[in-house]
Specification:
Length: about 200
């Protein structure tokens, strides 16, 4: 089950936009109009794709600025949020996301994410388990999907040098958690939540 809202396209009569699948990490394929590395160009820069004040390598009190300002990208906001709210439909269409819960689509999202991380020069990222990997009909199948996606994410980390700051579990989006996870009166729900936590501890 995906907790991301569905994108709606007026041009396709309400159907989700088809995704553009790319697989090579670091290739300029998802964001071709963004330079390979966004540069610091100073306060007077008029280039919207430049840093005006953030200079990653500038030394401040003996350490580069990037060590003082350790930015990370939150996967759920940046790659799963679609701009919807309680009063309207999603307004953002992600061309790499075909809106399915397939493993292929999850990898496509990850590939797009790591391209953006590297172009921004961001060295860390974070995610919930269900941001990056789909939920299946059983816990065993869900964990197997998580294992496959975790291996893919690790390969992207190795290829780019981007590091996982932390990963945590989503214990709020699925209907099973309507009465909470560890506060739930149903022991089965409590146990499922505990299993999710253990899995993400293993992934971390």
């Amino acid at each position: 089950m995906s907790f991301a809202p569905t994108s709606i396209s007026a041009e396709t009569g309400g159907a989700a936009e088809p995704a553009t699948k790319k697989s090579k990490p670091g290739a300029s394929s998802y964001f071709p109009s963004v330079p390979d590395k966004i540069q610091y160009k100073g306060a007077e820069s008029t280039d919207p794709l430049s840093f005006r004040y953030y200079n990653a390598d500038e030394l401040i009190m003996g350490k580069p600025m990037k060590e003082w300002l350790r930015f990370s990208v939150c996967f759920w906001h940046t790659f799963r949020g679609k701009g919807s709210d309680p009063f309207g439909f999603p307004t953002q269409i992600r061309h790499w996301d075909d809106e399915t819960d397939s493993i292929e689509n999850a990898k496509s999202r990850a590939n797009a994410a790591f391209e953006l991380f590297t172009k921004l020069g961001v060295e860390y990222y974070t995610f919930h388990d269900r941001d990056v990997s789909p939920e299946r009909s059983t816990l065993k199948e869900t964990n197997a999907a998580m294992d496959e996606i975790a291996a893919h994410l690790k390969s992207l980390q190795d290829a780019t040098g981007v590091k996982l700051l932390w990963a945590t579990q989503n214990l709020f989006s699925h209907p099973r958690y309507m009465n909470g996870a560890f506060t739930n009166p149903d022991a089965h729900v409590f146990a499922y939540g505990a299993a999710q936590v253990k899995k993400l501890m293993d992934v971390n």
